[in-house]
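Quick one, tokens below. Sequence please?
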């Protein structure tokens, strides 16, 4: 007698796995899959000074206010998740954003840190840390000249 497996395996609820699925969905532009990683009462905070600064709630609210707006303003906006630090329900990801601003044509490459809290297999809280001056420079026609 062999073992018969039916149905679709359930995705892992481990905090790092949930966060990784969020990054993969974002990279594919799959907003439905991204929303599936977020709790109904998610609190998603973009850093003060970032163009989309503020706290957004609900999966649909997060994707409309953040992901859809990033896609409208930037070509190939990607968050590259480089390394993870996990402590229980807390996941800190050291990452990079890369993109090209649609208006200025300037490229962006900036290091970021993301703090996620995952409970019950869903992201309940997100906080972004980023050098907002580099983002602003890519969005404007001017940047500080390098010192020699």
């Amino acid at each position: 007698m062999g073992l018969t497996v039916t149905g679709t395996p359930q995705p892992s609820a481990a905090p790092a796995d949930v966060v990784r699925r969020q990054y993969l969905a974002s990279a594919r532009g799959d907003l439905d899959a991204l929303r599936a990683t977020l709790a109904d009462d998610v609190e998603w905070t973009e850093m003060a000074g970032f163009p989309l600064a503020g706290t957004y709630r609900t999966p649909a609210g997060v994707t409309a206010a953040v992901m859809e707006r990033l896609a409208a303003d930037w070509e190939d906006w990607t968050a590259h998740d480089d390394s993870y630090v996990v402590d229980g329900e807390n996941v800190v990801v050291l990452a990079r954003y890369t993109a090209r601003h649609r208006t200025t044509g300037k490229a962006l490459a900036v290091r970021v840190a993301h703090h996620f809290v995952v409970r019950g297999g869903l992201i309940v809280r997100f906080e972004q840390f980023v050098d907002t001056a580099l983002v602003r420079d890519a969005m404007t026609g001017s940047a500080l000249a390098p010192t020699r």
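The beta strands are 38-46, 54-57, 74-87, 90-101, 107-119, 122-130. The radius of gyration is 17 Å.
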